[in-house]
Description:
The protein has 2 domains: 1-57; 82-257, Alpha-Beta Complex (Phosphatidylethanolamine-binding Protein). 34% of the residues lie in helices and 20% in strands. It is built from 4 helices and 9 strands.
Amino acid sequence: MFRGKVMNMKKPDMQTAFARGALARAVALILAMSLVFVTAACPKSMGDTAGVGAQSGQDVGVPSQGGDVASQPDADSSAVDAGDEAVKADSDFEDSISAKEDEKPMKKDDGWRPLKLTSPAFNSGGMIPAKYTGDGMDISPPLFISGVPEEAKSLVLIMDDPDAPGGVWDHWILFNIPVNTTTIKEGTTPPGARKGNNSWGGAGYGGPAPPSGTHHYRFKLYALDSVIGLDAGATKAQVERDMAGHVVADTMLEGLYARKK
């Protein structure tokens, strides 16, 4: 009896132990599967976090250098040579004149005539005679002016070469030309006009002398509703600055020149 009783008591204990072991194995399996899932998901989350941090800089504790990086100018892009700046300045000035003219109504029915600049020495788009170049007498060509608006107070004449290798080259600058001027004789300056400095650094006319090829020489005439308050020897940039907002009409005569080989 005693032996049977002992055996009956051990049987339930063994069943309990087996159940507990099965439960432990199930829990271990669940934990293992959870760990595998977490491990697989973590790299993507960490990668995403790193990506966001790399973009924001400050989210992952990376200090920004000098504030907003996008606002830092690139050294190469800011290095613009003098020639490009001169071309851009000319372009901006011409754009401002076009805008001014668009605002001004044309009164053709009131006897309005367009401002004109011509030369008996060459037609617009034609070749400039060598006499008026560095290969000849190097004197200014004769010019005729007509169609000056009644509201004009002064005229400006600028001759330059946009084909020069280093940028726009200024050959001749005259400002405060009297509005009643109709002729500029060759090799002369109209009475009362002031001479600006050309790109050689001297006042007066310097004729075409292209280093190679055929260059275009623009004789640009402007009618202003003001008088420029600059002394003789002013640069083209200074003259154009004073002209801004005062151009009531403009025109251009273009000549070509190429040196003989």
